[in-house]
C-alpha cells in the first residue's frame, strides 16, 4: 500500500472537486492512495444532512455578498465552512482494495490528525460530535464519502483562518460552537506546514 501526496495550495472548491475525481479514477486503476491538500477560497458546503434554511445563519444572498460560495455536496454531515488559512485534506484511497472498512478509515483519519496537531504542540480531545477539540474549541473537522470503494473528502484543520466567519453557519448542526486554530498556539505555521505535519504522521 502506497500513498502519494500532492499539495495544490489555494484553489476554488470546484477545482478541488475536479482534482478529487481525477485522482479517484487513478486510485481505481492503480490501487494506490493519493493525499490531496488545499486551501480553498471561501465556501460553505452542505452535506447530505445539511439544509439551507436550518444551517445558514444568513440568507444565501447575504452570504454570497460576503464573498462566500454555497455548495451542496454528497459527503456525510451538515454545514461546514472553508476559507483562506484553513488546511483541507482529501485522502483518495482505494479502501476496498486495501480491505479497509469505514470504521478503520475514520479512525485512521482521526488518529493521524490528532498526532499531527500533537507534533505542533497542540493536544486535542474527541467528544460525541465528530471532530477534534482543544480546551478553547473545535480545531479539526471530518466529513467523508465512499464511492465504489474509494474515499472522498476528509479533513479540514483551522490553521490561520478567520474564526469569526463561522458565524454564518450552524457548524455541523451546532449554532453556539467555539473554535480554535493552530495560529493561536503556533503563529507562524502555514496551511502548507499543517499539510506537511499531517503527511509526516501517516502510518499504513
Percent in helix: 25-40%
Unreliable segments of 5+ consecutive residues: none
Biggest sheet descriptor = 6 strands, mixed
Q: Order of strands across the biggest sheet?
A: 1-2-6-9-8-7
Shape designation: globular
Total beta strand runs? 9
CA-based gyration radius: 16 Å
Oligomer designation: single chain
In short:
The chain is built from 6 helices and 9 strands, in the order βαββααβββααβββα. It is of the alpha+beta class.
Task: Please tell me about this protein's structure.
It is built from six helices and nine strands; from the N terminus they run E-H-E-E-H-H-E-E-E-H-H-E-E-E-H. Strands 1-2-6-9-8-7 form a six-stranded mixed beta sheet, with helices on both faces. The longest helix is centred in the first third of the chain and has 18 residues. The model has no long low-confidence stretch (mean pLDDT 91). It is an alpha+beta fold and 204 residues long. The termini are close together. Helix 5 packs across helix 6. The relative contact order is 0.19.
List keywords for this structure.
204 residues, six-stranded mixed beta sheet, single chain, 29% helix, globular, alpha+beta, three-stranded mixed beta sheet
Amino acid at each position: 500500500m502506497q500513498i502519494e501526496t500532492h499539495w495544490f495550495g489555494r484553489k476554488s472548491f470546484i477545482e478541488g472537486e475536479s482534482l478529487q475525481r481525477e485522482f479517484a479514477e487513478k486510485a481505481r486503476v492503480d490501487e494506490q492512495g493519493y493525499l490531496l491538500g488545499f486551501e480553498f477560497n471561501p465556501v460553505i458546503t452542505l452535506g447530505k444532512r445539511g439544509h439551507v434554511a436550518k444551517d445558514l445563519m444568513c440568507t444565501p444572498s447575504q452570504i454570497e455578498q460576503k464573498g462566500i460560495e454555497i455548495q451542496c455536496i454528497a459527503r456525510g454531515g451538515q454545514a461546514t465552512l472553508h476559507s483562506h488559512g484553513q488546511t483541507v485534506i482529501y485522502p483518495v484511497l482505494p479502501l476496498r482494495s486495501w480491505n479497509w472498512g469505514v470504521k478503520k478509515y475514520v479512525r485512521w483519519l482521526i488518529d493521524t490528525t490528532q498526532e499531527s496537531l500533537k507534533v505542533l504542540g497542540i493536544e486535542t480531545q474527541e467528544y460525541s460530535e465528530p471532530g477534534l477539540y482543544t480546551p478553547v474549541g473545535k480545531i479539526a473537522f471530518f466529513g467523508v464519502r465512499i464511492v465504489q470503494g474509494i474515499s472522498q473528502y476528509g479533513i479540514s484543520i483551522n490553521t490561520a483562518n478567520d474564526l469569526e466567519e463561522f458565524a454564518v453557519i450552524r457548524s455541523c448542526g451546532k449554532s453556539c460552537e467555539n473554535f480554535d486554530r493552530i495560529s493561536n498556539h503556533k503563529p507562524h505555521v502555514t496551511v502548507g506546514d499543517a499539510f506537511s505535519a499531517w503527511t509526516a504522521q501517516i502510518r499504513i
